[in-house]
């Protein structure tokens, strides 16, 4: 039995949501009670060499079946269409990716063939975590550090190390890997009294935003319902979005893909508001962008291939463009309580002078005390900090051509303590592709010369830095990005792992049998 965690290391945590963490392995208490050295020992003890054919294949098949069943049979997801070749959202996704590239690099645009020749076919430069044409082929032999980092049987995320020359004996477990796992945000009571106060005040009827919508057993249609207070707030927040004439605004609903309208300040300009468990619909409605993410159904794995980059994540099933597939959780802290070390993992979620504040307080029927506190909080910066406790989101690597975007969705009220971060696929993501985000301008300086994303537009790819690539119009670049994506998909279709084919064939056969009866 591990020794108890010293009192000083324990925090008085206030969790901002009510999703419980389930300890099915019996190990979580041990793990939680250990100091970092003990946690490392525990992880090392668990680590084993595994082989794809004999040990892992079966596990992946099971996970895939579980995923497929949930997508098809979960009653809450009946309106969700799992469509990973939805042509409608492609052009917009690629335009957004192209716009981001265009803003950070500059040069005249050449034709598509030149672009493909230069950046796609040049294998030498497509190594590293961002290997752009990757498809999912797990290594035949690898070290499995843990079967499930989450300690929750409904959220199985294995962790592997694929570093060359590594064995379960000489395995290195870095300090930053032995964090506590939590799928909900929390605040430290002693450090952030104002956030705790905001959470308390938001319980009062005037300050709590919830709905009374219900419709028996069917999925409740809160979205587009003018009488739903949560949808009204969701719509109100949409007004703060930067908007391009004739282009649709980004929508935050439960089942529609989230397609951004522009690339800059994506995090601060695109905000949603969702129904939650305190509503009559319990969040099982069309106005809950967190619904799918909180189901945690997309099977992910954490792996390490490159010692400089450390751990990263990937999915073993395709993630369609615009899908909010996971939340990004951690401790909500004011910037003064965020250290340099935290900045490696932290996300700024609330910014003083934010050009678009979540609400105009004058419009709200909040109590005077809550309005005063919100006004106070508006003047400070807040982060979500997963350094010591967070979920799989903290492991996403940086890429100069990221395939994931992080966005904010409020629930229950509009203080920084009510922010949730969702991880949204920017394009159809092929299994095995590293799930990457753009760490943003602050981090860019740190990664400038060392970035190992390996993508065609990597700012750290020294060889490329002297080829000035600047695209002057995103519509010219968009077809190139789309073409690269198409090539990736072709390759994926050719090499798609048997398990997916088998599962789809089995599912279709079952449906035919059922129809025949
Ligand atoms: C938020 S953490 C990501 C998870 C981290 N790899 C781990 O093992 O816990 C950020 C750190 O990952 C590494 N990293 C992420 N993306 C990288 C990239 N494209 N190139 C080089 N290092 C990267 C850097 O060390 C960075 O400080």
UniProtKB/TrEMBL annotation:
InterPro entries associated with the record: Class_V-like_SAM-MTase, SET_dom, SET_dom_sf
Tree of life domain: Eukaryota
PROSITE patterns per the UniProt record, alphabetical: SET
GO molecular function terms listed in the Swiss-Prot or TrEMBL record: histone H3 methyltransferase activity
Alphabetized SUPFAM superfamilies for the sequence: SET domain (SSF82199)
GO CC terms of this entry: chromatin
Domain SET: from-to ranges: 298-440
Name of the protein described by the UniProt record: Protein CBR-SET-21
Name of the gene encoding the protein in the UniProt record: set-21
